[in-house]
Amino acid sequence: FLGLPEFKSKSVDPVFPNLFRYNYDLQVDVELSEAMRDAASQEGIITKMMTNPDFRVDYGTIVSCQMVRPEWDKPIVSISSNRSLSYYSVEVMQEMMIELGKSTAKAIEESGKKCLLIASNSLSHRHFVTETNPPEDMSKEHIASHAMHLWDMRIIEMMRQGKSQEIINEMPEFC
Description:
Elements: E1 6-12, E2 21-27, H1 30-42, H2 59-68, H3 90-111, H4 146-160, H5 164-174
Antiparallel strand pairs: 1-2
């Protein structure tokens, strides 16, 4: 959880540093962030507050903020998850993320604030395995596996149809 009122820096994408460089300046609702962290911790979820002012905010947060509200004039709460450090089972990771969602919802309800939930993640997210020369040449970008593409399309279609429980049920196999 971001735990300072402001984060301002330059984000440089680790995969394409020559393509993605973005200056950001975002405001954080620290009170709500701490309430969410506390609610998650009470459910046994390992949590941390990021209070390093030089911390570079993750790519998913920056892209989500820019796409949803390019004015950057609303405070946010950002939850970055590195589940794989603590959990080795997809089923356990999934269960913990469901608990994180429930505890987050509880903290929001108790705060009385109106919030918009934005999630940023990838599906199979593997379009190519070697960088082209030059890297900007997108004519070489393609899906690495047709099977991955079919899974992606299946999950997206279930999202469109609102089949949340089916997605949850299939997620271990998908992962």
